[in-house]
Specification:
Strand order of the largest sheet: 3-4-5
Oligomer: single chain
Mean pLDDT: 88
Low-confidence stretches: 237-261
Protein name: Metal-sulfur cluster biosynthetic enzyme
Helix content: 40-55%
InterPro entries: FSCA_dom_sf, MIP18-like
Number of helices: 10
Pfam family, one: FeS_assembly_P
Radius of gyration: 20 Å
Order of helices and strands: HEEEEHEHHHHHHHEEH
Strand content: 5-15%
Structural class: mainly alpha
Distance between the termini: 51 Å
């Protein structure tokens, strides 16, 4: 395999890893700086080294991220094997071995979490991601001049046509739509609750207050995780931009800092 092909393939792997999120934060593991290195070999094998903010980060979250990395990278047509390698974690060996063997969480961690499954964890954080993304696009629509009645009655087609710019609302728009589709909620209305119930205009202010609490909690945890990771691996840049080992760049979310202050 030539150097240019290897470089292209490494870039493809990084792009796939950018689709994997920390389930608690709903942020890409690459933006968070969790992924340290990516290596590909001539046989279609991929090694992904990653690390987390603490030695005792939740084992179920760590397993979810490792398994999601495996699944995301395996979708590339040339990939034959994916070997996520969690480092510096209390159950790294069990997680690495279990993910490589395609085991469930209960099988991989049978000596630590007997009988546990990840279905409830996935569902809990899928709901939080849905609500965080939904709040961002609703606030962006309000800022663009749409009133609450127009937002609550907005069709999916009108939502698709809406220009929310390049800030948070624009970033979250396709991500929110993807979750609508994934949950089978991409029907007539663009905005429904996580359970598919329409939102009445008079309900929207209180509904948004609840979504705001969800977002602030996630943003606070994001800032905490970034700080712990930086303290653990001491990679702080002078300008508060942070360069991880892979060469990616991540920046602490200024909005999150303001909200949690």
């Amino acid at each position: 395999m030539g150097a240019s092909v290897r470089t292209d393939r490494v870039a493809e792997v990084w792009a796939r890893l950018g689709e994997v999120t920390d389930p608690e934060l709903d942020e890409p593991v690459t933006d968070l700086g969790f992924v340290e290195t990516v290596a590909v070999d001539g046989e279609g094998g991929v090694d992904v080294v990653f690390r987390l903010p603490t030695y005792w980060c939740s084992a179920n979250f760590a397993f979810l991220m490792a398994d999601d990395m495996r699944l995301a990278v395996s979708s590339l047509p040339w990939v034959r094997a994916v070997r996520p390698q969690l480092q510096d974690h209390m159950v790294a060996a069990e997680i690495n071995r279990g993910v490589r063997l395609g085991q469930s969480f209960a099988e991989a961690l049978k000596d630590f979490a007997a009988g546990e499954t990840l279905d409830e964890v996935r569902e809990k954080f899928r709901r939080k991601a849905f609500e965080r993304r939904q709040e961002a696009v609703i606030l962006a629509l309000r800022a663009a001049g749409h009133d609450d009645a127009a937002i609550c009655g907005m069709s999916l087609a009108a939502f698709d046509r809406a220009d929310l710019g390049e800030a948070e609302g624009g970033y979250q728009k396709p991500r929110y739509r993807a979750l609508l589709v994934a949950r089978g909620l991409a029907g007539e209305r663009a905005f429904v609750t996580y359970n598919g119930r329409p939102i009445a205009p008079h309900e929207l202010p209180a509904y948004l207050q609840r979504l705001r609490a969800v977002r602030i909690n996630m943003e606070f945890n994001s800032v905490l995780c970034r700080g712990l990771l930086d303290a653990r691996y001491k990679e702080i840049d002078a300008d508060f931009g942070l360069a991880c080992g892979s060469g990616c760049t991540r920046h602490a979310p200024a909005d999150a800092i303001r909200e949690s202050a």
